[in-house]
Amino acid sequence: MIAAPELPSEFHYPQDSDTRFSSDTDFSEGPDVSINPTKGKGGKKGKKAVGEKGKGGKGVGEAGRMNGHHQENGMENMMLFEVVKMGKSAMQSVVDDWIESYKADRDTALLDLINFFIQCSGCKGVVSGEMFRNMQNSEIIRRMTEEFDEDSGDYPLTMAGPLWKKFKGSFCEFIAVLVRQCQYSIIYDEYLMDTVISLLTGLSDSQVRAFRHTSTLAAMKLMTALVNVALNLSINMDNTQRQYETERNKMVAKRANDRLELLLQKRKELQENQDEIENMMNAIFKGVFVHRYRDAIAEIRAICIEEIGMWMKLYSDAFLNDSYLKYVGWTMHDKQGEVRLKCLTALQGLYYNRELNTRLELFTSRFKDRIVSMTLDKEYDVAVQAIKLLTLVLHSTDEVLSPEDCESVYHLVYSAHRPVAIAAGEFLFKKLFSTREPEEEGAPRRRGRQSPNANLIKTTVFFFLESELHEHAAYLVDSLWESGAELLKDWECMTSLLLDEPLPGEEALTDRQETALIEIMLCTVRQAAECHPPIGRGTGKRVMTAKEKKTQLDDRTRMTELFAVALPPLLAKYSIDAEKVTNLLQLPQFFDLEIYTTGRLEKHLEALLRQIREIVEKHTDTEVLEACSKTYHALCNEEFTIFNRVDIARSQMLDELVDKFNRLLEDFLQEGEEPDEDDAYQVLSTLKRITAFHNAHDLSQWDLFTSNFKLLNTGIENGDMPEQIVVHALQCTHYVILWHLAKVSEGSHRKEDLVSLRKQMRMFCLMCQRYLTNVNTTVKEQAFTILCDVLLIFSHQMVSGGREQLEPLVYSPDDSLQRELLSFILHHVFIDQDDDSGSTDGQQDDEAGKIEALHKRRNLLAAYCKLIIYNVVEMNTGADIFKQYMRYYNDYGDIIKETMSKTRQIDKIQCAKTLILSLQQLFNEMLSELGTGFDRSSSAFCGIKELARRFSLTFGLDQVKTRDAIAMLHKDGIEFAFKEPIRRRTHMYLERFMTFQMALQREDCWLPLISYRNSLQAGGDDDTMSVVSGYSSRGSSVRSKKAKAATPTANVAASKRKLPEGRLSIEESSSSADVSWQQQTMQTPVMMPSPHLTSTMLRGPGDVRGEPKRARDDSYMGVYTPQLHQTPIDYNRRGTGLMEEDEEPIVEDVMMSSEGRMDDLNEGMDFDTMDIDLPPSKNRRERSELKPDYFDPASIMDESVLGVSMF
User: Fold this and answer.
1) Ramachandran region of residue 128, left (φ > 0), alpha (ψ -120 to 50) or beta?
2) ω into residue 981 within 30 of 0, thus cis?
3) For 696-726, how does the pLDDT look when each residue is reduced to its tens digit (9 = 90+)?
């Protein structure tokens, strides 16, 4: 913020009657509005300072009467705050009642007004009469601050709900009406306004946000009301001065001296009143605005800027100068969009009035660059208003904005945010299209090339070409639609510019300009017919009004009548230009086809069909042929009478194409002859035409499957088939199968049709599978894409929805096909950008080529992921996809993440297995590359850890839903960790935690540990040895061996271990452990009690033991060592069994713990100072009842083992 000059804390009304509002304020004349100048006050009293509070008048009793309201309103004894809050009474009557009470007892009424402002701030305290008489405003505010409850943070101006939403408006209205009703008498009594302004100034400087916000709003609204009063006084003074001058200029005989004296007295009184109003406004401005326009709260700053804009607009003679404009200019740099928005709306009100432009010249030159830069504001609302403000500036004067300033707004017509684009379109229209040639009165309206819109349409074309965003014509049209719809819908002028010869002296359009004009014309037709913005700008479907629907119908009728006649000549003129023809052929899709019949336009339809047929014969471009196919599809509508005529033309053309294809194919596939390039071109061009039409039309009556399959089979056998022929043959065969399926799915079909379709589908899938190994990348990609589509269509999903009769068609890929599909993805999708040289089809290694290649690979990956999601292939095949999540996150992260989400919805358990499988694969790959002695700080291992962390985030925090999945994930991970060669390393790791006192224990409860240890050493199949079996063999040799004392070797080995400081010696520790253990053993011969649940947070050992905190080391898996809680044991809780029936494995609580996930979700926080208390499980004992954990590593681990790695 720009620092404001230092101002005194208290402001006094100056005694000089000639004081003006500011040094450069000039209260000049305004509109002629007369008021009654009579004031209800006596002689002038000595003026007081605003900071002082008047103590005159009647005393205030504690039980003094509140402001009296009409009893019929039911609010006789209601507080003023309650009346305004309810909003049921007219504000005029509320204010009139308060004025009556003020005249009766001004101290009581003023006390009610003070409490009104206090209560509007949300304060529960009440200013009593005693406080009002004996305390200064600062003391009262301090007392109210002490009684203010800021815990909730809400106060009336910020509370939610319909009642409080209306409160702000009622609050502001009350202040405005109060000043308006008091403007002739009470506000000049040097008591009311002095007290109110002093109170609001003090509250606005409070540390309490509610006081500061409410008082600032009240003070600003009070200032606005006073500005209106000052404006009326200025007008009356000017009127009085003119009357005085008129009377004085009369002849002496006709001059009325009494009237002159009356006018002088009236002018003097008005001048005195104006001086007082000026002093009040000065006090508010310097005491409140200058401090609060840079308040820490954005809402308060916005209030100040909004109101100063009102002052400059209402009373421009006094406020519209640089002394006040500078505050708006400075605040345009505010960090909050809300405040910047208020600056722009305030300036719009000023620039809208052209009479004020001369006073804004200096401000415009100083802050123009800032306004232009705000068109790119991150807040879209601010950007929209900035563009609208520049439009007003442009409307007022065309010389202020430079060409560079205008160009910075021009490009915003292509913005994806529609309001910004619409505002930029309005600016562009005013700048480029506002200079229209005037038409002579009485002269016939010029049409076509000679219309006034001709040059404007050319200007649009020139702008479109210069912007170098040729594929965004739809965005340009949408931006200009609201401001220039009449120009854009002048299709007659557009067609005339394309068809007619240029006038003498007129420059003809170039080929590039004609292409751009046709594209713009197509976009305008689409916009008029569909009535919704282009893709990327729409905010959803909007319900059109009746007027919009009528306009849409009228536009469709007019465009059909025009283009039905003009389209055939246009196609004939540009028949060899593929780009122009492609755009022109899309026009019939928006026609009202009924007009061909009602308008007697059949001959033009015949001409259109002839032109389309000629275009099909001339062109082989896929885009042109597909446009022709779509046009036939649009015209072949059985609802209209033109259907038969169009259907006959289409059938004749297709008959010729199929006959030609079969004839060429027979010659092309003759044995013993080498096909030349001309034959291959003829076959390819005909196949392209058939494929394009087969996409939108059913060609089942022609047996295209046999010929295409023969062509594909020959390509496999010989291996020299041109790639484009194979690509289109695959696509055409795909269409044959889909149309056959559509006919079978209708319900009326024979068994032979199902058998035939099933045979064709399986043959085609086998053919595509064989083409996956083709040497040509384009052919392989086409075969893969089509194969994925066919497998998805003919999966088990096709029998859903009551289509059980299609069950014989269900086809599931075998294991070999699944492996080939996965191998294709791994070798053609997950590759580096530089390695993808084959899929770019020989394009240059430029940015556009890379983007196109990436888009193609994304489509391939999406096709395969759909097979995983719909359970066409095994879900575990997704492991090879999921493990690439981190490496190719920028290219395919969204696809892989969505696939994981969908698979989890299908089967949580299997999805968890797939995730852990992907991690296992990466770990094995790392071991094969780095060996078992890898560095844990290596990028490969860190990448696996990061991938695991990302996987964990995908489970969410709902522990109940993810419980089984997390358990399965841990189970598979543990099984993987204990496989060879990791098993032996796991035993070595656990051996380091073995201490002497553990070796001395040879009771039954150690059987699981002994069994687990033996399994690690022997590597046998006794991993799952039951604890029950250990107890059932109490008399066995194993039991007897356990009962023996520890050998001296064990003692020596244990004594060599280093004990941490402060621990017991080996003898003391072992003896005390023996005693406690024997006591418990004699009392209950059951298994060891369950351990205390410990947090999975990563903590240093010093956090628990009172030792200094250690630096966090990422090279080891941190071990949390909690203190032992020796809770009493309830021996009556257990029976003779090993575990109670309702007791679940304690590991479930650890699996359900969300602390590890919270660690990931809150990275960057200091977890060393964060304690999370896990809630107890509902289906087992409270954690405080769990028995002490003798397996707790805190009692046996020293500092030397804390850095040991598990792997």
Assistant:
1) beta
2) yes
3) 998 888 888 999 999 999 888 887 888 999 9
